[in-house]
């Protein structure tokens, strides 16, 4: 036997190993091919899922956009309805006030038709005391509390705190106010452009629009304001014609 010759056993084993290697290679190729196909399918499925997700997102976005457009429109309608309701309520309140005003006018029509104050009319004396400071619009007069000379558009009439102040002439209440100088002040329209102004009052139970007859209660005399502390308790009594002060003593 030739020494260089290998036994048939080794030849058979080598052939078997070669076959195994070829078989493994084939399996590896098939596995790689299968894996590539599987990976490709997975990628396609993922891409398809992403497209579906994007589509759903777009649809939801459209729905959200639609809702955002509709909601403000609904709010606008609600706002318009609210404004219309407010206008209706305002109109009703205005009508109610007008009706109340008309009712007040009806109650006082009989009295106001008799109001006709003129140059020949006479005023009743409104307080118990004497004149402390005369009416003076031609020259200044001295005010003790203020320690200065100034014009005086009214009579400053002395009195006692708590005494009753009555209307010097019939009139309709046109204003009730609180001022620093004359305290609680009531204005009566006496007709024909004449008005009487009563200041330094308290316990006034009148209201604008009320009719007050001659001698009827207007209020009581209060403590003097700081502008008349030296003069003491007094009634501020002013008469105006078309808004201009005139001398009350001309009618007494």
TrEMBL record:
Question: Where are stretches of biased composition, namely Basic and acidic residues?
Answer: 55-65
Q: Where is the M23ase beta-sheet core domain?
A: 156-248
Q: Where is this region: Disordered?
A: 55-112
Q: Name one GO molecular function term.
A: metalloendopeptidase activity
Q: Which domain of life is it from?
A: Bacteria
UniProt keyword list: Membrane, Signal, Transmembrane, Transmembrane helix
Q: Which residues cross the membrane?
A: 12-35
Listed name of the protein: Peptidoglycan DD-metalloendopeptidase family protein
List the source organism.
Mediterraneibacter hominis
